[in-house]
Amino acid sequence: MDLLLKLVLLFLGLVNLNEIKLSKFSQSLPANAITSKQLEKIESRLPELHRVKALIGHSKSQASFALQTLTMIDSSNFSQMKQCISNIEHKYQAVREAYFKIEKMKLEIKDLEINKPVNEIVRLKIRENETSIESIQISMSNALREIGMLQDFYEAIRKSNNLPILWTEHDYEKQEISNMLRKSFRLGIQNISSTDRVSKSSVEYWEQLGIHPQTAESYCRNYLKQVDDMIKNGKEPAVTIMYEFLDGMAEHFKDSYKFALDRIGLKELGSKEFRV
């Protein structure tokens, strides 16, 4: 690698000083498996691996997190925020575990260096720990950036929808029925669009919400027919039309769940006494 380029990348923290030289790998490979020139070529390109890994080493893009991983397609703002918190907790625990793993490796290195003389096996173990630490640090950095991104998502959703900073479990439960209704009809639309029939899970979902499955299916089919007619007439329906349909279903069937509660023998959803 060009010396100036290496110095620049080192300054930016994109070169691993403890990176194992690939030229040493040839000693552990079968004869004629790969040439020294080929190894040098691979090694010369590794700085780009470290650079990109430090930038986007996480498993998903921010766009994927926003539109897919966090199920932002969910109709409930509180459910979207809950998903943010769930992912933050997962990432935080990963960072926490990585931190203690690094600290243990550092202590192990100190213990190895204290014992004199330091033989080749000990030196190898020290280098193994050092390279592992730097690799874990990159993963920690990516995880922390994802936590920051998810925190930004959380705050943006809360502020955009004028939700209280200190919202409660009561606030969450208050909107859950409308959210479940929207999800059930979205599932019905997906079923009919892909197989021209509603699934068993859709039928069960509607029954759990106190809605007769055939009634719900007829609403879905009428909506899809209206959309199909618009397309046949040369129009391009926007996705907002589907959102309006889902909102309409949530409003129309907002009290249907009471039929299911009555059949079960419950007077309320959950227990207000034991909500935080």
If you had to describe this structure to a student in words, what would you say it looks like?
The N and C termini lie far apart (60 Å). This protein has helices at 3-11, 36-44, 46-56, 62-69, 77-114, 120-160, 169-174, 176-195, 200-208, 213-232, 239-252, 257-264. The chain contains twelve helices and no strands. It has three domains: 1-56, no CATH class; 59-164; 171-274, no CATH class.
Keywords:
mainly alpha; elongated; 12 helices; 276 residues; single chain
Tell me the layout of helices and strands.
Elements: H1 3-11, H2 36-44, H3 46-56, H4 62-69, H5 77-114, H6 120-160, H7 169-174, H8 176-195, H9 200-208, H10 213-232, H11 239-252, H12 257-264
Helix pairs in contact: 3-6, 5-6, 8-10, 8-11
Query: Approximately how much beta-strand content do the residues carry?
Result: under 5%
Distance between the amino and carboxyl termini: 60 Å
Give the oligomeric state.
Answer: single chain
Total domain modules: 3
Q: Can you give the mean pLDDT?
A: 82
Helical run tally: 12
- Secondary structure: helix percent: 55-70%
